[in-house]
Amino acid sequence: MAAIRTRRGIIQLVGTLALLALVVLTLRERLPAPADVGRALASADHRWLLAAGIAEFVSMAMFARQQRRLLTAFGVTMPRHRALALSYSRSAIAISLPAGSVVSAAYAFREFRAGGADRAAATAVMVLSGVLSLFGLALLYATGALTTALVHLSAAWNTHPAPTLAAAVVLVGLTATALHRLTAVRRRNRDVPAEAASVRPPRMWPWLAALVRPAVEAVTSSRGVAPRHWLLALAAATGNWLTDLACLFAATRAFGIEIGLLELATVYLTVQIVRQIPLTPGGIGVIEISLLAGLAAAGAAESPAAAAVLTYRLLSCWLIIPAGLLAWLVLRRAGRSGRSPGSDLVDRALPDEFGPGEHRPGLGEHGAVIGPGGHVGEQQPARAGPDGELPRLLARQVHAGRTVG
């Protein structure tokens, strides 16, 4: 097993170096001189820089709100200052460490347990947080695709109105049929017991089953969660991505880059695909070069583009690491003393999104206490097999955190 992991690490390192070499060779004629980048940084519009910083802070607050809303759906209360500190510390771990997402998930599990969640609820929230983040990103992709389609549809209507009308009618019909079938399936599932509704992993693709099973089990076990919790958590996840995009937009405007929002969103979403491939911790190096290539392809000058990328990554990545370390220390101190310093200030600064009575257990449709089945606690969101990384990490975290859970 150790030899397999070593071989996988070597392959990943070689692939990363090859990709970086390919991108550098592609951009070697367009990489600006450091002096030009320095002059671009010195001429930045400070108002847009401030807007970029605020947007990134709101992005982190949305991530905190997403986790807090999911915990509330399972009857667990987490203060706003603690959720915000956890979002910074989790992001710093994911950015800075090899296999950072796995370690970040294990750390979140321990903090959820320390906050009062049982093992099953902590596992479900950890899994569902990642699922909703992916759904939020997919929603942005769908919005971008729909916007692009509408632009092309308008142009096609001006030139070929009849075929365009026919295609639109077919598309509307297919969409209505899909929605009708989805509603019918949901109506049938309401009468199916939770045990019968659990999805058995396909035997043909065991690797796919190990990857998908944790999300399926978590979603199945949380069928009693009120729809408003799902909607608010998904809204927070989408807001997390949108405000991060707003940070990039403000960074480009700070250096006079006049790229349309649709073009910039295309560059951003393309880079997010690259970001999902764990070539380096937090995509450091890969994302910078990919963003620079995308901005250059969109028509931005080399020096302002490099300055914008540096500013965006400084706010969304490099400054997150020391801030996350500070947040980790605050959480650790809070675990010993009971309440962290400055928590009242943070709680007043971040408005509460919960309605009256939503901090108590029993948040299902009819006020019944809800929560995942015990079997969900045995599933993990990444490498769920017995030799996976996350089960071993979570086992150590649970063993260490039994006295606080």
From TrEMBL:
Superkingdom to which the source organism belongs: Bacteria
Cell membrane among keywords: yes
InterPro entries in alphabetical order: L-PG_synthase/AglD
Keywords attached to this entry: Cell membrane, Membrane, Transmembrane, Transmembrane helix
Basic and acidic residues bias locations: 353-363
Topology with respect to the bilayer: Multi-pass membrane protein
Protein name stated in the entry: Lysylphosphatidylglycerol synthase TM region
Organism for this UniProt entry: Amycolatopsis marina
